[in-house]
Amino acid sequence: MTRRVLPYRVPHDDVVEAGPWLLVTEDGEVAMPEALSNWDYRMNLHVRRVVRVDLDRARSQSSLPPGAALTLAAAWTATGSNLSGPGHHVRLSQEGVHQAELSVRLPGSDLGGLLLLDTALVLSERRADARPSSPRRAGSVLWSDRESLRLQGDAPQFPMAVIDFSLTSFPDAAAWHLQISGGMESAAMGALLLLVNARNTVTAGAFARAAKPTPVDRVVLSAVHADAARVMVEHALANDDFDEHADFPDGSLGATMLSLIDQLFPAQSTTDIRLRQRQSPTLFASDLQAAVKLFEV
To answer: Measured between alpha carbons, how far is 192 from 181 in angstroms, rounded to an integer?
Structure first.
């Protein structure tokens, strides 16, 4: 086992008592699971945790003076979108044992793949008069930990935007368009974009009410899901180098395509699926329609 050695003193791990991350839902709070099997890009996330810090011991064991300001911070990274950012931070200038709550709200459109939640106790400000063995730069890490949450919904996961198609090269009467860019190694969340025509009020309204859809909304969303799956499968099969033996990075477009095809056509090789599509495209279209469970709302 390797251990990172820092060029300054840090406190013992037990000066920080970090509670578990909790997933905040409409029905209350639950312990954050290892994976969210029903997640999709329309699902925003709210997580929080409570952390207790013995500030006196943290400072003394790091050779910091009693008044040194520390900050407890949370940051996030999503491997599927290749995005990251700050979550929440709390400045700690008190003495004794202090309890702080970290609350992080994340839009689903920024997520995908593996969500990494990093928590750290850091030095708030640069200290010009620091001892040689103590941290001196702002942001110097005194303690940290990392938790992860796999976002693995069955539906294709990608961001979306509602735009007026009359201002684009897309047909004015089209309801939606799935845009795919980049190669199979590209991050899926950056390569996929679902565009919804703002002029098509039925489709735009269905996505606006996706959290609590009406019966008609469910039919529309099912149709979009089926069509997006078809476009993604056809895009993947058109690439002769695409097969189940390819080693695509986690969260990449290729990995997302492989996962989707495996869900739709389990226990079938990519070669067999591609051959069936090319030899009988109309029958394959029906196979795909059945696989996505069109209109099973």
So the answer is: 7
pTM (predicted TM-score): 0.59
> 162: which 2 tokens?
């509602």
Q: What gap in Å lies between CA 214 and CA 209, rounded to an integer?
A: 8
Query: Left (φ > 0), alpha (ψ -120 to 50) or beta: where does 20 sit?
Result: beta
Phi-psi region of 57 (alpha: psi -120 to 50; beta: other; left: phi over 0): alpha
110-127 burial code (b ≥16 CB/10 A, e <16)? bbbbbbebbbbbbbbeeb
Burial (0-12, 13-18, 19+ Cβ within 10 Å), 290: exposed
Query: For the chain, where are the E strands, in sequence order?
Result: 16-18, 22-25, 28-31, 35-36, 45-54, 70-78, 83-92, 97-106, 113-123, 141-151, 160-163, 176-180, 192-197
State how far the Cα of 224 lies from the Cα of 209, in Å rounded to an integer: 14
170 token code pair = 């897309």
pLDDT at 156: 47
Count the helices and strands in the chain (H runs, E runs).
Answer: 7, 13
Tens digits of per-residue pLDDT, 163-208?
999 999 999 999 999 999 888 988 777 788 889 999 999 999 988 8
Give the SS3 label for residue 290: helix
* DSSP label at residue 200: -
Q: Is 16 exposed, middle or buried (0-12, 13-18, 19+ CB in 10 A)?
A: buried
Domains located in the chain, CATH noted: 13-151 (2.60.40.3880), 160-291 (no CATH)
Query: Which long-range contacts link 271-277 to residues 24+ away (Cβ below 8 Å)?
Result: 271/243, 273/237, 274/237, 277/234, 277/237
